[in-house]
Amino acid sequence: MAGCIKIEDGQTFSKEMFCIPQHYEDYLESVLIPKGLILNRTERLARDICRDLCHGPLVALCCLKGGYQFFSHLSEFIINYNGTSGHSVPFSIDFIRLKSYENDGSTNDVKIVGGSDLSSIKGKNVLIVEDIIDTGRTMEKMLEVVSQYKPAQVKVVSLLVKRTPLRSSSYRPDYIGFEVPDRFVVGYAIDYNEYFRDLNHICVINKEGIEKYRT
Ligand SMILES: O=P(O)(O)OC[C@H]1O[C@H](OP(=O)(O)OP(=O)(O)O)[C@H](O)[C@@H]1O
Ligand SMILES: Oc1ncnc2c1N=NC2
Ligand SMILES: [Mg+2]
Ligand SMILES: [Mg+2]
């Protein structure tokens, strides 16, 4: 099973110790993972992934919208590692948008938004890049869609995997940044009803925030 950094229940930082946008200050409980630590972990994930996958053309597939920050930074580290290691391979990207959350729960209906033509992945090594795996339903749908395009190999990296033993499919990706407690997190492109994507750090939303931005 993939190694990862385990964030224990209750292991958080005071939001007063970080730069938090004023418009979100009253709606966050704590900082769970500061952006600097995210970037440091992402750099090592890029090296691990390159060592395993950079033997043939690699396509990184971004799971929009929540995965876009992690995808951007991971891709940059992969490009830098790929370009400086003795053996480099062509690296390309593609995007797919899946949506299943409303408020702080899964609708149990994972939708592909805006269609998706992933014919570019046929016969390639594909790295699916996701922000968080909670129930696992989104990733199950993603793997089903991707397999239809007959890639040579599919690996999955998720920045976060949430400890949700009672409601998850127990799916574990090939690469994991952090294992996190069963709390609703926001920030670093991870949203609550499209809010908080503009927050640098991964934080725990508070009750006021859940009510303020509930649809
Ligand atoms: O494992 P699951 O329970 O399926 O939850 C994880 C998925 O839910 C969120 O996406 P969301 O539906 O919020 O769309 P978004 O990426 O546009 O925010 C998140 O970005 C993951 O894709
Ligand atoms: O904690 C979370 N925060 C935002 N979005 C999602 C979460 N879990 N599944 C989807
Ligand atoms: Mg998502
Ligand atoms: Mg979301």
UniProtKB/TrEMBL annotation:
* One GO MF term: magnesium ion binding
Q: Which cofactor does it need?
A: Mg(2+)
Q: Provide one Gene Ontology cellular component.
A: cytosol
Q: In which pathway does it act?
A: Purine metabolism; IMP biosynthesis via salvage pathway; IMP from hypoxanthine: step 1/1
Domain Phosphoribosyltransferase, first and last residues per copy: 39-192
Q: Which Pfam families match?
A: Pribosyltran
Q: What class of enzyme is it?
A: transferase
Q: Which reaction does it catalyse?
A: IMP + diphosphate = hypoxanthine + 5-phospho-alpha-D-ribose 1-diphosphate
Localisation: Cytoplasm
Q: Which UniProt keywords apply?
A: Cytoplasm, Glycosyltransferase, Magnesium, Metal-binding, Nucleotide-binding, Purine salvage, Transferase
Residues spanning the signal sequence? none
What InterPro entries does the record tag this protein with?
Answer: HGPRT (IPR050408), Hxn_phspho_trans (IPR005904), PRTase-like (IPR029057), PRTase_dom (IPR000836)
Q: Tell me one GO biological process term.
A: hypoxanthine metabolic process
Q: What is its EC number?
A: 2.4.2.8
Q: Which branch of life, at top level?
A: Eukaryota
User: What NCBIfam families does the database record attribute to this sequence?
Assistant: HGPRTase
Which protein family is named in the record? Belongs to the purine/pyrimidine phosphoribosyltransferase family.
Q: Which PANTHER family match?
A: HYPOXANTHINE PHOSPHORIBOSYLTRANSFERASE (PTHR43340:SF1), HYPOXANTHINE-GUANINE PHOSPHORIBOSYLTRANSFERASE (PTHR43340)
- The protein here is known as Hypoxanthine phosphoribosyltransferase
